[in-house]
């Protein structure tokens, strides 16, 4: 996992590529980084941007799943008092007592089964058996569907994050090495060396990528943030 926030690395990746292109002819050691730094930066940018783009889909699917479960739970809870007035032996703890999705779904299934199987002393079913079955079944099917889609979206999002983190880790290692060589080749006061410092990631730069993330709140100034590793 990268040692620094990925959004910072995402802002530095295009800068590093442009600095390398601009300065690679000044020292053979800098040119030697091209086959390592460029692919590492490009891969990280691609994975980071994919995760960022997918995040809104993930958030929407997760919220739709939570909403569907909440609607189902509320429906079950609204039927329980009526059923309890007729089936005094009903154990209400079996029905939507928990907000956990699995428990809500199981509670709905139990309520439908209990009402469906019930008959009074005369052998008659509850008068609202079909109404309850239709109402709960519709919401149950929606909850199962939305929950399944949310779980699939979550799996995909976690994979995109894993890819981004892995590629960020690889890019960060190459970036740190490149900065060390750059500092020795052109001097640490050089503008190109300074713009690749992690603490400069939040600052606007002419080498920034228009597609890079908007800077988050800047960290407290710390001139030693990555000088020790330089």
Give the percentage of residues in beta strands.
Answer: under 5%
Gyration radius, in Å: 29 Å
Largest sheet: none
- Shape field: rod-shaped
Structural class: mainly alpha
Number of helices: 6
Straight-line N-to-C gap: 20 Å
What's the pLDDT, averaged over the residues? 90
Number of strands: 0
Number of spatially distinct domains: 1
Order of helices and strands: HHHHHH
Low-confidence stretches: 217-230
Helix content: 55-70%
Tell me what the structure shows.
By secondary structure, this protein is mainly α. It has one domain. Helix content is 67%, strand content 0%. It has 6 helices and no strands. Helix 1 (6-23) runs antiparallel to helix 3, helix 1 runs parallel beside helix 5 and helix 4 packs antiparallel against helix 5 (129-186). The longest helix has 58 residues, at 129-186. Residues 217-230 have low confidence and may be disordered.
């Amino acid at each position: 996992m990268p040692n620094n926030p990925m959004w910072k690395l995402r802002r530095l990746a295009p800068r590093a590529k442009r600095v390398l292109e601009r300065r690679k002819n000044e020292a053979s050691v800098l040119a030697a980084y091209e086959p390592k730094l460029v692919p590492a930066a490009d891969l990280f940018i691609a994975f980071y941007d994919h995760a960022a783009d997918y995040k809104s889909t993930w958030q929407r699917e997760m919220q739709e799943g939570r909403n569907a479960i909440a609607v189902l739970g509320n429906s079950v809870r609204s039927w329980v008092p009526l059923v309890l007035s007729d089936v005094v032996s009903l154990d209400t703890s079996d029905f939507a007592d928990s907000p956990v999705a699995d428990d809500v779904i199981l509670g709905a299934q139990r309520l439908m089964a209990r009402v469906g199987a019930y008959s009074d002393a005369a052998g008659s079913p509850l008068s609202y058996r079909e109404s309850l079955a239709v109402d709960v079944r519709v919401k149950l099917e929606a909850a199962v569907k939305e929950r399944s889609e949310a779980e699939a979206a979550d799996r995909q999002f976690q994979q995109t994050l894993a890819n981004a983190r892995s590629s960020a880790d690889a890019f960060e290692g190459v970036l740190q090495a490149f900065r060390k060589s750059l500092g020795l080749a052109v001097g640490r006061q050089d503008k190109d060396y300074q713009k690749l410092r992690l603490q400069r990631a939040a600052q606007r730069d002419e080498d920034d990528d228009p597609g890079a993330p908007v800077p988050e709140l800047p960290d407290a100034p710390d001139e030693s943030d990555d000088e020790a590793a330089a």
